[in-house]
């Protein structure tokens, strides 16, 4: 009995040590994510394209640090094939925020959705080694949605009357895309319910702009940096 | 004692099996409802009558699938007289959404309320076999009410300034009709309280349109497709 | 719209009135159950067979009142075929206690389990008109189990050293019988988990009696009133 | 955007379908485990070695069914390398009970602990394809511990005064073995705390037997079936 338990001890200690190593990486990741998020906040009140561009560049400057930390996670998991989901809970929450930050920056730049594989490319992870779970990616996208109503209100306040139309179109597409999914995952379904509310808020801003005759009649929305 | 419990086992397993069969139907119903709801979403941003008509036709194309699934429920219950309310909880939520979808589509088509018996006819259920519970119907109606403010906002944004008047008249009638009822049911009363709030929101849009001189003076609202 | 809602009003009021009538019966049932339960308490401290018999007779004297009230429930439901489960929640809790009381009294009398159909006979209900739901019957049985450890402790204190053996055998049979069932019902499963604990407590009393040499060596337990 | 979400849909549906398949196996496993556990119950009241042997043989007769179901789980996971821990939650609880049943039967047979690799052999799983998680194995062992005090009480009641000594020695060894482990896992630590309490209860029975002079003086405990 004792010999067997000695073997268990070393195996439990090995998995305990893996958890410790992951926790150390996540703790650093948490710091980078927090600072990157803070660096992005001024985009809500950037009054010129130049100012917005500087905010985005500052935010993007943290991407190499994200890459370093995700490559550390990948390295820990690489030696333990098949254990990604054993430890997945540890990086789940931070990954939601990372996906949010990367895809919000990307949308601000291009008015386009950052795809799942683009997230993995930006983070420098190889899907066969350390992939970003699809549900984590989708929850990250829901987080953009909850940021956009505030962004639209601030842009209109700053005199950008086209922004509500762009955001409304983007969120409406995103909302339709989510409806395609059969969401059995409780957390994801709950976040998705918020998406509808965000879209409604943006549509109300668009309505306010329209009814006051502030909306131009040009059909196609222009990307912000064009 | 054992013989009696053997009998209980088979009875508990029989009701367990009924629940399994119902759950299988509800899971499919859930899919159809989700896809039908997704198909109806573009009605918020349909810019022409033709586009709106196509959206409605697409949504209506799912009705035969609803009929098939409700006839499966009816078949399960038909063999178990008096057990409709034993299993009612299983289809309650989906039925609220089905009533909402059918009556929203009907209202978009005709600006009229879809009656309780019309719902049963559309679903192909015979009331003596498998009726739609009245409270479920009424909750489904409350769901239209919560969709209409968003619809009105989007219609006005698209330049349809008559829509608020039509919707306000419809919701006002619906609100009066609900006041006839003596609502002791908690869920229904709560939803009805939302109806008042929805009516108020639509009236505010009507006011916005009116004070900006965007409302025509013609008295009678025209149905959308006339 | 108004005519339809007038019809709904009368239907909602009809079901509201049914609920009122049922609630009035249940309120009276609640009283009888409470008094009957109080009348049964002294059985824990009855020191002679005669005293125990008197307690049981007193408890049984409430059965005609139970019959009257269940026949009132049956009468309300008889006119509404298929609505037993619509209103089932109203009498569920009281029925658990009624089953417990009847079957505890029966066990005290005979050391036998009161069967499901015997419960219906005692309550004077016809299964085709107003049955006792099987899950309610089973939950009622679990309630006896939770009364028995206390009863055993009191009987041993009063010098009846055979009682633990009888109760242990009864609960052990009941426990085995429940294990036959596939309990998907959450409430029932939770109550059943308590049954195991009750059995363990009774076995510990039996152990105490055995280890002190107080247990006779006769194999078959005798019913209390033989 | 839509194409990407179509791909997500199929991936989410694929993992949803895997969960459905696993759930179907687990539901069957649940049945077998329940019936096997019920078949083992009479061991508490078996009065002869022959009767106990028959109970154990009955319990062991379910092992081929366990093998069949674990091989089905293994087959589902085999096609999805590295996803064992993604779906691990589904079979965790049942596996605890399976380990308990197998190792309790083994202990009753031999008074020895069933090792982790013996569990895998009995279940017919190949560790490289579908292993039994070590923490699940250890939790299963804790479940024997919580069954043993009741077993000891019943054995003593049946006049087997050697049993407490055997069980006390076994639990004491098991307790020492667990102390070797560094338990950071919350669930496992909580169960382990229960082990100490179970050992104490068995020691109290041993004490009761000893001070009443019911314990023989022979040093070595005899296995039950020798």
Automatic annotation (TrEMBL), chains A, B, C, D:
One Gene Ontology term of the molecular function aspect: endonuclease activity
Gene Ontology CC entries for this record: cytoplasm; nucleus
Annotated localization: Cytoplasm; Nucleus
Keywords: Cytoplasm, DNA-binding, Endonuclease, Hydrolase, Nuclease, Nucleus, RNA-binding
Keyword Hydrolase: yes
CDD domains (alphabetical): Translin
UniProt keyword Nucleus present: yes
Listed InterPro entries: Translin, Translin_C, Translin_fam, Translin_N, Translin_sf
Cited Pfam families: Translin
Domain of life: Eukaryota
Family: Belongs to the translin family.
Biological role: Exhibits both single-stranded and double-stranded endoribonuclease activity. May act as an activator of RNA-induced silencing complex (RISC) by facilitating endonucleolytic cleavage of the siRNA passenger strand.
Subunit relationships: Ring-shaped heterooctamer of six TSN and two TSNAX subunits, DNA/RNA binding occurs inside the ring.
Protein name: Translin
Source organism of this protein record: Riccia sorocarpa
Lineage, top ranks: Eukaryota, Viridiplantae, Streptophyta, Embryophyta, Marchantiophyta
């Amino acid at each position: 009995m004792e010999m067997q338990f000695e073997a268990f001890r070393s195996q439990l200690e090995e998995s305990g040590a893996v958890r410790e190593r992951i926790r150390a990486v996540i703790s650093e990741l948490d710091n980078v994510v927090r600072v990157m998020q803070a660096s992005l906040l001024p985009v809500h009140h950037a009054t010129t394209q130049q100012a917005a561009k500087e905010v985005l560049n500052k935010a993007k400057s943290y991407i190499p640090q994200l890459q370093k930390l995700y490559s550390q996670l990948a390295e820990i998991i690489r030696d333990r094939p098949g254990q990604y989901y054993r430890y997945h809970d540890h990086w789940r929450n931070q990954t939601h925020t990372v996906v949010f930050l990367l895809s919000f920056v990307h949308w601000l730049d291009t008015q386009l959705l950052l795809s799942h594989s683009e997230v993995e490319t930006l983070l420098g992870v190889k899907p066969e080694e350390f992939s970003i779970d699809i549900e984590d990616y989708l929850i990250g996208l829901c987080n953009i949605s909850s940021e956009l109503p505030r962004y639209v209100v601030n842009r209109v306040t700053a005199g950008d009357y086209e922004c509500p139309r762009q955001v409304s179109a983007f969120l409406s597409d995103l909302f339709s895309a989510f409806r395609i999914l059969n969401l059995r995952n409780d957390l994801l379904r709950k976040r998705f319910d918020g998406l509808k509310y965000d879209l409604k808020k943006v549509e109300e801003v668009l309505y306010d702009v329209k009814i006051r005759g502030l909306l131009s009649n040009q059909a196609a929305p222009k990307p912000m940096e064009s």
